[in-house]
Design a protein that fits this description.
The complex is a heterodimer.
Chain A: E1 2-3, E2 11-21, H1 27-36, E3 41-44, H2 59-66, E4 74-75, E5 81-82, H3 105-115, H4 122-135, E6 138-139, H5 148-160, E7 164-166, E8 169-170, H6 196-202, E9 206-208, E10 211-219, E11 222-231, E12 238-251, H7 254-263, E13 283-289, E14 304-306, E15 314-318, H8 323-328, H9 334-341, E16 347-354, E17 361-364, E18 370-373, H10 378-397, E19 402-404, E20 412-413, H11 422-425, E21 466-468, H12 483-502
Parallel strand pairs in A: 1-9, 2-3, 2-12, 3-9, 12-21
Antiparallel strand pairs in A: 4-5, 6-8, 7-14, 10-11, 11-12, 13-16, 13-19, 14-15, 15-16, 17-18, 19-20
Helix pairs in contact in A: 1-6, 1-12, 4-12
Chain B: H1 46-59, H2 69-84, H3 88-102, H4 104-107, H5 120-131, H6 136-153, H7 157-163, H8 167-182, H9 195-200
Helix pairs in contact in B: 1-2, 1-3, 1-5, 2-6, 5-6
The chains are: A alpha+beta, B mainly alpha.
Chain lengths: ~500, ~200
C-alpha cells in the first residue's frame, strides 16, 4: 500500500514493527528482507511514487519530481560542488546510471583493518555482493544498447593504448534509452523502484510518501519511531503532522540527510564522528565536439570506463545528458550558447572522477537545511588538471575538433599544444567546475565507540533501536560507483536486525 | 569510425532477476497522467514578473533560435514552477536576486535603466560580464539564474526540434524493442543504434 499527502489526517499516527526512512539503495533492501520475513514494515519517503510509465525525457518536471530541491544542492567550499540526490520512491537509484562495480579488494581490506571487523573485509562481504548482483541483475550491456558516444570513448582509449573496461550495470535487457538520470522509461534499470520495493510491497509493506521525517521519537533512551510533516504537492508546504511508532527504526536518507537528521538530537557523542568523514568523489565534466553526428543521447549512459589511471585514483566515463542539463552547465548564455547547443548532436560529454584524498563534514544549517562542506586539496586539483588533460587529449587525438574544459570562463581547446599549460589556467580552486553524485561516509560503521558512529549491526552506539543503512556507513571512499556496496551493507544490516525484531 | 559486429550472445534470454518490470505500452510525454500533482507556480507580483521576463529575454537566444511570446511565457512559467521545488528560503532568495539583476545596469554604472528595459544584446553582454566577475558571489548569482531559466528554455519541445533532439519516438522504439526481447525475440543487427551503425547498414 502506498500512502500520499491526501491520505494523511492533520495529526496522523502510524505503527509498524520496522520503520525505514528512505527507499533508495540503503533502505529498500532492508525493508524488503524484513517484510519477506513477516515483519510489518513501513517506509517513509520524502518524495512521491512515480512508476516506470511516468518517466519521460523532459528535465524540468522530471527534476522537480525526482531530485531533491530541484538539483540546487551544493557542497560548500572552494569550489562550490553541486550534487544531486534522489527524492522519490527508489531514491537516487531512480536517477543514477545503475553502475554496479564491486568495491576494490584493497579498499575492503582497509575497511577490515580500520574497523577490526572481518565482516567488512573482502571475504566477509563477498557473499552479500554476489547476492546483490544476482538480485539486481548486474551484467554487461547488450551490444544493441551501445551508442556512438560510448564507441568513440572506447575507440579513443584504444588509440591511446589505455585500458577501457565495460561497466557492470544493474539492468535486465537494457536497450540504451539514455534516460537513466530522469528515470528508466522501459523498466530495464534495476533501481529499487522496480526490484526491492515491489518485493516489499508484495510482502505487505506500506510506503508513506510525500512525508519529510524531521526528528526521532526517543523514549527512555531508546528510539521508538520518527515524526515529520507531509508535503502538500500543490503548494509544497508541509501542513500535516505524521508520527510513526516502531520497534526499530532504520535511517537510510543518504550520507547528507542521515547525519542531518541524527545531529538534531546531538547523537554520535562517543566518537564525535557523526557528520564527519564526508566523502564525495568529485568529478569534472569535459565536453568534446566531433565533426560527425554522434547523437550521444541514443545509447546507454556509461557503457564503459577508462581505467588506465585507476592507480592514481582517476576514472573517465561518458555520460550524455539532455539539452536542458547541458545548457545549464555552460559558461555562456544567449546567442553564444545557442551556437554551442546547435552542435548538441556532435557532443560527447564525459566525466573525470577523482577518488577523495580528504574528507568533509555535514553540519545542520539554518532553515532545517543540511550544510555539507568539503575542501579539495592541492593534490586533487593537480589530479583534476591531469585527468582533464588526458581526456581532452584523447578526444583531440580521436578526431574531436574542439573540447570545452571544466575551468572557469570559456576554456575551449582545439589542439594538443593548448593542453600544456593548464596549470596556469587553474590559478585558484574556484577556477574548477566540479560536480558529484557519490556521497558517502558520515556515520561510519565500526567495532569501537571511540572511532565509529554505529556498531556492526548498524545500530547507533548511543541510541538503541536506531539503525543506519546507507552510504553513510562507509569507513572510507571506495573509488567506484557505490550502489552495490550500499546494497551489500544493507543486506548485512538486515540480516542482523530482522532476527532481533522477531524475537 | 569502424563498427564492431554484434557480439555473440552466450545464452538467450539472459537469466532474469527475481522481479522483471515490463515497459509501458506508451512512453510518457510532458506531464504524464500518473496522478502526480504539479505544484502551482511561485507567486509573483507584476514588478517581479517583469524582472523575470527581462531576465528570460537577456539569457535566451533571439531568432533564428526558437523565440516567440509563447516561448518566453513558457520559459518564465517553467522557471516559476522550478522555484516551488526549492527550499522556500532559496525561492525567496531567487526572487530577491531577480530584482538585484534587474537593477544591475544601475549598480554596474551602465546607465539609469533596468535590465528589462535594455537592448537585448546589451542586457546579455552585461550578464556575461557578471558571470565572468572575479567576485564569487556574483558568479554564483549568474550560475543560479542561468540554470533556472536556461534549463526551462532548453526543455521546450520547440527547442528540442530545432536542435535535432527527438527523444520521444526514440524512447518508444526502444520500449517496443525491449517488449520484443522480453517476449523471447533475439536481438538483430537492425536493433543497433548510432549514426555510425546507420551509415554502415
Amino acid at each position: 500500500m502506498i500512502l500520499s499527502h491526501r491520505d494523511y489526517l492533520p495529526q496522523h499516527r502510524l505503527e509498524a514493527d520496522l520503520v525505514v526512512v528512505g527507499t533508495g539503495a540503503g533502505g529498500a533492501p532492508v525493508g524488503a528482507l524484513a517484510a519477506e520475513a513477516g515483519l510489518d514494515v513501513l517506509f517513509a519517503e520524502e518524495g512521491g511514487y512515480h512508476p516506470t510509465a511516468s518517466f519521460n525525457p523532459y528535465g524540468r518536471e522530471s527534476i522537480a519530481r525526482l531530485v531533491r530541491d530541484g538539483a540546487t544542492t551544493a557542497i560548500q567550499g572552494r569550489p562550490l560542488i553541486p550534487f544531486v540526490e534522489g527524492r522519490c520512491v527508489g531514491g537516487s537509484t531512480v536517477i543514477n546510471g545503475g553502475m554496479s562495480w564491486r568495491p576494490p579488494e584493497r579498499i575492503l581490506a582497509e575497511w577490515a583493518r580500520l574497523t577490526g571487523a572481518s565482516e567488512l573485509g573482502p571475504a566477509g562481504l563477498a557473499g552479500l555482493l554476489e547476492r546483490v548482483e544476482r538480485e539486481t541483475s548486474v551484467a554487461d550491456q547488450l551490444e544493441l544498447s551501445i551508442g556512438d558516444d560510448s564507441r568513440l570513448m572506447a575507440q579513443g582509449a584504444a588509440r591511446m593504448g589505455w585500458r577501457h573496461d565495460k561497466n557492470k550495470r544493474g539492468q535486465y535487457l537494457c536497450v540504451g534509452c539514455n534516460n537513466c538520470v530522469m528515470g528508466c522509461p522501459t523498466g530495464a534499470k534495476t533501481s529499487t523502484l522496480v526490484t526491492w520495493i515491489p518485493r516489499a510491497l508484495r510482502a505487505g509493506a506500506r510506503c508513506a510518501t510525500e512525508l519529510r521525517i524531521q526528528r526521532l521519537l526517543i523514549e527512555g533512551g531508546r528510539c521508538v519511531g520518527v515524526a515529520g510533516q507531509a508535503i502538500n504537492p500543490a503548494t509544497r508546504r508541509m501542513d500535516r503532522e505524521v508520527q510513526i511508532r516502531a520497534r526499530a527504526t532504520v535511517i537510510s536518507c543518504g550520507a547528507v540527510q542521515t547525519p542531518h537528521l541524527l545531529l538534531r538530537h546531538g547523537l554520535g557523542r562517543p566518537s564525535g564522528q557523526l557528520g564527519r568523514n564526508f566523502l564525495c568523489h568529485p568529478n569534472a565534466k569535459v565536453l568534446a565536439f566531433y565533426p560527425q553526428v554522434v547523437r550521444g543521447w541514443q545509447g546507454v549512459s556509461q557503457w564503459g570506463q577508462v581505467r588506465e589511471f585507476r592507480d592514481e585514483g582517476i576514472l573517465f566515463a561518458e555520460n550524455m545528458i539532455p539539452p536542458s542539463a547541458v545548457a545549464s552547465l555552460q559558461p555562456v548564455h544567449g546567442q553564444p550558447l545557442w551556437e554551442l547547443m546547435q552542435r548538441y548532436n556532435h557532443m560527447v560529454l564525459g566525466g573525470v572522477l577523482v577518488e577523495d584524498s580528504t574528507t568533509g563534514r555535514i553540519r545542520r544549517g539554518p532553515f532545517d537545511m543540511a550544510l555539507p562542506s568539503y575542501q579539495i586539496t592541492p593534490h586533487d586539483i593537480h589530479r583534476f588538471i591531469d585527468g582533464v588533460r588526458h581526456m581532452a587529449l584523447m578526444h583531440l587525438e580521436n578526431g574531436a575538433d574542439q573540447v570545452l574544459l571544466p575551468f572557469s570562463g570559456r576554456h575551449f581547446v582545439s589542439s594538443p599544444d593548448q593542453l600544456r599549460d593548464l596549470e596556469r589556467v587553474v590559478e585558484r580552486p574556484d577556477d574548477l567546475d566540479l560536480f558529484t553524485v557519490h556521497l558517502m561516509g558520515t556515520a561510519r560503521m565500526g567495532t569501537r565507540p571511540r572511532d565509529s558512529v554505529v556498531n556492526l549491526d548498524g545500530e547507533l552506539w548511543d541510541l538503541p533501536g536506531c539503525y543506519v543503512s546507507d552510504a553513510s556507513l562507509f569507513p572510507t571512499a571506495i573509488g567506484v560507483n557505490p550502489q552495490v556496496t550500499i546494497m551489500a551493507l544493507a543486506l548485512h544490516v538486515a540480516e542482523r536486525l530482522v532476527p532481533r525484531i522477531r524475537r | 569510425m569502424s563498427v564492431a559486429p554484434p557480439e555473440p550472445l552466450p545464452a538467450w534470454p539472459p537469466q532474469p532477476p527475481p522481479v522483471v518490470e515490463p515497459p509501458p505500452p506508451v512512453v510518457a510525454g510532458v506531464h504524464p497522467g500518473d496522478g502526480w500533482v504539479l505544484a502551482e507556480p511561485w507567486p509573483m507580483g507584476p514588478s517581479t514578473l517583469a524582472a523575470l521576463d527581462g531576465l528570460v529575454r537577456a539569457l535566451c537566444p533571439a531568432s533564428p533560435a526558437p523565440w516567440s511570446a509563447e516561448i518566453a511565457a513558457q520559459t518564465a512559467l517553467g522557471t516559476r514552477l522550478f522555484l516551488r521545488y526549492l527550499p522556500p528560503v532559496l525561492g525567496i532568495g531567487f526572487v530577491a536576486a531577480l530584482h538585484v539583476l534587474d537593477l544591475a545596469p544601475l549598480w554596474r554604472l551602465r546607465g539609469l535603466t533596468r535590465l528589462r528595459d535594455m537592448d537585448r544584446a546589451a542586457a546579455a553582454a552585461l550578464l556575461q560580464s557578471l558571470a565572468e566577475s572575479r567576485f564569487q558571489p556574483l558568479r554564483l548569482l549568474l550560475m543560479g539564474a542561468r540554470a533556472a531559466v536556461l534549463s526551462s528554455y532548453y526543455d521546450l519541445v520547440q527547442v528540442h526540434e530545432a536542435l535535432g533532439y527527438h527523444p520521444l519516438p526514440f524512447l518508444q522504439q526502444r520500449a517496443d524493442l525491449r517488449r520484443r526481447l522480453l517476449a523471447g525475440s533475439r536481438p538483430e543487427a537492425a536493433d543497433l543504434i548510432g549514426p555510425s551503425v546507420e551509415g554502415a547498414r
